[in-house]
Amino acid sequence: MIVDCARHAGVKRHQDLFDYMPHSWQKHFDRYEWTGAVDLTSNHIRVSSKFRHDPIPEYKPGAEPDRMTLVIPHQGLTVNGWADRVGAKVYLDALNSYGEAHWVSSSSKLAMVVSPHDPVWSASEIRRRGASPKIGGVCIPLSTEMLGTRHWDPIYEACIERGLPVVIHYSGVEGSYTGAPPLAGSVHQNALSRLILMPQLAESNAASLLFEGAFYRFPKLQIFFAGFGFKWIPSLMRRVDQEWRNFRSDMPWLLDEPSKKVLSNMWFSSYPVGEAGGLVAWEGEFSAALRKRIVFNSHAPFGNDTVEDVERVLGKTWVDSMMRNGRALLRYKTGTEA
Questions:
Q1: How many structural domains compose the chain?
Q2: Which uninterrupted H or E stretch holds 224?
Q3: What span, in angstroms and rounded, lies between the C-alpha atoms of 129 and 318?
Q4: Which of 108, 272, 290, 301 has the highest CB neighbour number within 10 Å of its CB?
Q5: CATH number of the CATH domain containing 178
Q6: Which of the four pLDDT bands, split at 50, 70 and 90, describes residue 69?
Q7: pLDDT at 66
Q8: What is the residue range of 235's domain?
């Protein structure tokens, strides 16, 4: 499976994203505040027909039967920094409709984006859209509410009902905007510092999910951390188990080692594959069970970490293994994977 990030995906002139919005909201978004400021904010928000996208590649049936693309509409994730929470829901509704119409094919599915500000509305959207075979996952933009808290329970319940994995990917506004989750320490004043510290968000939320009992409330919940790297996972697993052994009386709801939930309920992406450090380090530090939870991530459309890049670092055997892992993750929707 290839997990793509539709970060540069805009809209075509003949069918604008606005076509999927109520007319009363179109004028709200068709202002310089949204369309003109895009260039000034690293293209965080794309709603104008002036921004175009290349079509998602459709692979010929039988040519590459193992390849299925899960498209992550990155621009929708930026609502985690929006103060306009009503507008965020209108925008996401339109973006998901546009994605279903333009980014889905026989070899690609859409990871619909929901609002972190309104879990009840998000749950209703998952139930409404999630029955469609076009939907392959649910993206939750990160917020200041950790993923293990009961704030997210309505979303998790709806995802389980529809058999959809939860996809977590940073938006890029974390540590920058009020409303988006902060990074550790204080405000970082340059983009490179923020980028290299994004794995903090995955590690913190993974610990929250493990220690706050989310996987006991929802045993079938599947969480996929995409784009955060993977080098931090073995050390996290060792630390959570050690602290559980030392202080398990403080958390009686945790019935066994937290690392077991990592291997049954969490998935991670291969990007950036350079973290593997080569085949020897990869096979030495990562257990066989953990390697089954790593899914190939192309990080498209930036051209990083192609299949060839991963094969150059780890070899074809591990490329094939990551593709199998991706198919297992997507098969969760059909009920064949628990």
A1: 1
A2: strand 223-225
A3: 34
A4: 108
A5: 3.20.20.140
A6: confident
A7: 55
A8: 2-334
